[in-house]
Amino acid sequence: MGRNWREREDPKPIVVLWGFSGWKPGFIAEYLPEYRTAFVRASWMGPQWLYYVSQMPERPAAFVVWGQTEPPWVRRHACRRGIPIWRMEDGFLRSADLGAHHATPYSLALDTTGLSYDPAEPGDLARILATHDFAGDAPLMDSARRCLQVWRDLKLSKYSSPRPLGLAPSQQGPKIRPRVAVLGQVPRDAALRRANPDRWRVDDVIRLALHENPGAQILYRPHPEVHARLKRGQGCPKALCTLADPGEPLPDFLDGIDRVYTISSTAGLEAVLRGVPVTTLGQPFYAGWGLTDDRARGADKGRCLTPEELFAGAYLLYPRYLAAPDGDAEAGFMAAALRIDADRAVMAHDAADTVLEPKPIQGVRKLLASKYLPQNLLGVKKADLEAALAKYARHPTAAALLGAVNPDLAQAVALAAS
Fold first, then answer.
1. Which residue in 259, 270, 252 sits closest to 311, CA to CA?
2. Alpha-carbon distance 329 to 317, whole Å?
3. What does 212-242 look like in DSSP terms, one character per residue?
4. Window from 18-27, 212-221, 361-370 with minimum mean pLDDT
5. N- to C-terminal Cα distance for the chain?
6. Cβ 325 vs Cβ 28: under 8 Å
7. Would you state the pLDDT for residue 397?
8. Beta pairing class for 36-41 and 179-183
9. Minimal CA–CA distance to 320: which of 307, 338, 333?
10. Pick from 336, 346, 344: which is nearest to 94 by CA?
11. pLDDT digits (tens, 9 = 90+) for 290-325
12. Global pTM value
């Protein structure tokens, strides 16, 4: 797939891509302009495909796998034929909408040695952070400072969704004590399983945050895809913490946070870049560089980085940007940032249109006839309202007691009785 197959003179090398969902090939080829791309769809990855691959007119330059989704027989075949396996994943500045909603990513990472979230097989990002001469690369660091400032000013995130209509500026009310956030992840996701050597669970992390921050308000923010019920996730022990709505944009959420605890969430990277102290219990790639409080064994990388250097490695040197296939990282980042900001505005406008769209008159008639009308209008169930009305009629002095116990119900009774 891709326009490179039409070139007859000096044809480009072939890469075979494994494990990509059916909605992805249309844009993946644009990220690999130096190759001809041949896709084996995720739903068809049976051993018979090795026969078709072996019959290709030329040997593939590499197998490109989405994450770590390849079957063992693909790895064995690649090992026998000497074909390298490269891995692809989303970049850290992805899109306004979730990937689970099939939003096109504006950045991807092509890793030739591993994956950013797997400390057992350190990838290109780990090598970049460990070896690149950031101090001696003045043009890169100038670009990093400009891009980081834009990232902060536009309040961007990996998923930069707009603030939902009706969501208060702060979901937790006035801040009267320190706030500590525990960042959730998808429990069965490879990014958590491979970077969690001590097998921490969310409730254990919450208990640790409580123990180390007496008197603080502990907020648990689940992964957006878990909260949206697109993946199975763990709940929040309500007796230990307050559940934070992940619909609130992450930059806004972090504005009021004094410390973050996480196992290996990418959101921890964004907290570091925004100057929020971060405690890591696992082995995320951004731990061990002197920017985080690390509790896992072997987290120390033996080198200290500044936030700007970490940003330069993760956002400029490591990913590929859809708008910059020629490798101009700053131009690609800026294009992605502005496009995501525009997409976010469009999503907010569409959401407003949906909320404000007049409902059919039939729907209004059903609402007026519904037994739930008191609850919809007044926040009071019909049975409670009727019982309160009966008691109010017999004992007028009960109104004062009712007002002290349940002001909403008292107001509903007063309205209904008038």
1. 270
2. 7
3. HSTTPEEEEE--HHHHTTSS------TTT-E
4. 361-370
5. 71
6. no
7. 53
8. unpaired
9. 333
10. 336
11. 999 999 987 888 899 999 999 999 999 999 999 885
12. 0.79
